């Protein structure tokens, strides 16, 4: 019987940054000594090799591949969530945060557990074949994502390990966790007072997310068998580059389903955005940048004769990338609702359905790299994710006012019309490397 549990927690919020040592962004792999307990080598690909793709200048090719791997995982996990919810239910999550947390988990994994993590999170698609290099590329990716974008934009992430004080955790594991992910270990007394430990962890999460994420760990989620809790938080606040004028907000109806409509406050502006209509795919795409231009919100709006479920089912990274590449800047008449999303769920069943089974099994999990003595007695009992997003005239979350010129409702015969009055998909991304920070289904903006 495998005694102690390892509980994985992810607290997410609208956008965030990673605390890493200042020298890691210019370091080379040999400078960091990232040598985890076990290393997995990806198999050589079968069949013809695809032609190399164009990579943005000043971007490490492996960081680009890691960003794409995170994108494929994001869409795969989104589909699992969609299967578990009704079509009129909202979805909100941070796939990059989830990937980061499980990359930290991978530090201690061996055997089939390590292989499944590599495959489910698509880390094995990176051309660098050995799993230890993934951590170095995560460090480089974090340096790209979490550099300061603009004085009005906050993208902040924080990680922490909470371990039972009765155990001696591997010094190698702790060093790599802190070097790459900024995750220091804080000893807590899970064995004698698990609920007090739960409160401590929830308070830490709340503090790191501007009090927007509360009670991530529900009552009863920790017990005396809990040995380690790994927490990742991500927080975002940004102002639109083109702010909506509050005087142009009007009341309208949002068609949640064929049978139900609800009243919303619709924000309006007409200006130049990246936009494209894809009649063959029955979608419109609109990209609205935040100040600084690095971070943008992309809305995928199905046509009136197409359900959001139909778009979700056929969506993959190749199609999404093609859509994004073909968008052009043009004048668009934009109407989108104000809304707030809050989502909380256990990741365990979703990840198990995707193939990550051993990690959650007391009998099959292999995590010997976590403890100093190399004993293989830990497994993950559950993984929680909680996320919050607010979109209004200023931007996402609450933002300070700034002077941005908004265009009124002038009549322009050459304009495109983008009216988001029905369920749509939403992505928040870092545009220079197309990193998906957040993904959402806005099916019912009246539910919060």
TrEMBL record:
<keyword id="KW-0722">Serine protease inhibitor</keyword>
<dbReference type="Pfam" id="PF00079">
    <property type="entry name" value="Serpin"/>
</dbReference>
<keyword id="KW-0325">Glycoprotein</keyword>
<keyword id="KW-0094">Blood coagulation</keyword>
<comment type="subunit">
    <text>Forms protease inhibiting heterodimer with TMPRSS7.</text>
</comment>
<dbReference type="InterPro" id="IPR036186">
    <property type="entry name" value="Serpin_sf"/>
</dbReference>
<dbReference type="GO" id="GO:0008201">
    <property type="term" value="F:heparin binding"/>
</dbReference>
<feature type="domain" description="Serpin">
    <location>
        <begin position="75"/>
        <end position="445"/>
    </location>
</feature>
<dbReference type="InterPro" id="IPR042185">
    <property type="entry name" value="Serpin_sf_2"/>
</dbReference>
<keyword id="KW-0646">Protease inhibitor</keyword>
<dbReference type="InterPro" id="IPR000215">
    <property type="entry name" value="Serpin_fam"/>
</dbReference>
<comment type="similarity">
    <text>Belongs to the serpin family.</text>
</comment>
<keyword id="KW-0732">Signal</keyword>
<keyword id="KW-0356">Hemostasis</keyword>
<dbReference type="GO" id="GO:0005615">
    <property type="term" value="C:extracellular space"/>
</dbReference>
<dbReference type="InterPro" id="IPR023795">
    <property type="entry name" value="Serpin_CS"/>
</dbReference>
<keyword id="KW-0964">Secreted</keyword>
<dbReference type="GO" id="GO:0007596">
    <property type="term" value="P:blood coagulation"/>
</dbReference>
<dbReference type="GO" id="GO:0004867">
    <property type="term" value="F:serine-type endopeptidase inhibitor activity"/>
</dbReference>
<dbReference type="InterPro" id="IPR023796">
    <property type="entry name" value="Serpin_dom"/>
</dbReference>
<dbReference type="InterPro" id="IPR042178">
    <property type="entry name" value="Serpin_sf_1"/>
</dbReference>
<feature type="signal peptide">
    <location>
        <begin position="1"/>
        <end position="19"/>
    </location>
</feature>
<keyword id="KW-1015">Disulfide bond</keyword>
<comment type="function">
    <text>Most important serine protease inhibitor in plasma that regulates the blood coagulation cascade. AT-III inhibits thrombin, matriptase-3/TMPRSS7, as well as factors IXa, Xa and XIa. Its inhibitory activity is greatly enhanced in the presence of heparin.</text>
</comment>
<dbReference type="GO" id="GO:0071391">
    <property type="term" value="P:cellular response to estrogen stimulus"/>
</dbReference>
<keyword id="KW-0597">Phosphoprotein</keyword>
<keyword id="KW-0358">Heparin-binding</keyword>
<dbReference type="GO" id="GO:0030193">
    <property type="term" value="P:regulation of blood coagulation"/>
</dbReference>
<protein>
    <recommendedName>
        <fullName>Antithrombin-III</fullName>
    </recommendedName>
</protein>
């Amino acid at each position: 019987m495998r005694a102690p549990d390892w509980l994985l927690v992810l607290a997410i919020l609208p956008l965030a940054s990673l605390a890493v040592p200042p020298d890691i962004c210019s370091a080379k792999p040999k400078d960091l000594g990232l040598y985890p307990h076990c290393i997995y080598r990806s198999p050589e690909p079968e069949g013809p090799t695809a032609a190399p793709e164009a990579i943005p200048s000043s971007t490490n090719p492996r960081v680009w591949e890691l960003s794409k791997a995170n994108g494929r995982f994001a869409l795969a996990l989104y589909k699992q969530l969609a299967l578990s919810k009704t079509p009129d239910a909202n979805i909100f999550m941070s796939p990059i945060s989830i990937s980061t947390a499980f990359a930290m988990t991978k530090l201690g994994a061996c055997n089939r557990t390590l292989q499944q993590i590599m495959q489910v999170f698509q880390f094995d698609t990176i051309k660098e074949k050995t799993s230890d290099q993934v951590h170095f590329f995560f460090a480089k990716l974090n340096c790209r994502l979490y550099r300061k974008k603009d004085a009005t934009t906050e993208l902040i992430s924080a990680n922490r390990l909470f371990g039972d004080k009765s155990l001696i955790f591997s010094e190698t594991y702790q060093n790599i966790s802190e070097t790459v992910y900024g995750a220091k270990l804080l000893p807590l007394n899970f064995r004698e007072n698990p609920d007090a430990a739960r409160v401590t962890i929830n308070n830490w999460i709340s503090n790191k997310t501007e009090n927007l994420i509360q009670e991530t760990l529900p009552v009863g989620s920790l017990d005396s068998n809990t040995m380690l809790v790994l927490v990742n938080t991500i927080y975002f606040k940004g102002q639109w580059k083109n702010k909506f004028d509050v005087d142009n907000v009007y009341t309208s109806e949002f068609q949640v389903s064929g049978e139900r409509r609800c009243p919303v406050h619709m924000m309006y502006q007409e200006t130049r955005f990246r936009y494209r209509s894809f009649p063959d795919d029955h979608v419109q795409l609109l990209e609205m940048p935040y100040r600084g231009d690095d971070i943008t919100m992309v809305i995928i709006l199905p046509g009136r004769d197409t359900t959001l479920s139909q778009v979700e089912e056929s969506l993959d990274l190749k199609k999404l990338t093609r859509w994004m590449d073909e968008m052009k800047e043009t004048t668009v008449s934009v109407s989108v609702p104000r809304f707030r999303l809050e989502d909380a769920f256990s990741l365990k069943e979703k990840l198990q359905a995707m193939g990550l089974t051993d990690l959650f099994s007391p009998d099959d999990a292999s995590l010997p790299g976590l403890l100093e003595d190399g004993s293989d007695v830990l497994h993950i009992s559950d993984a929680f994710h909680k996320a919050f997003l607010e979109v209004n005239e200023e931007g996402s979350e609450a933002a300070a006012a700034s002077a941005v010129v908004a265009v009124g409702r002038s009549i322009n015969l050459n304009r495109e019309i983008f009216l988001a009055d029905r369920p749509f998909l939403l992505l928040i991304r870092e545009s220079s490397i197309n990193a998906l920070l957040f993904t959402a289904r806005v099916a019912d903006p009246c539910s919060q």
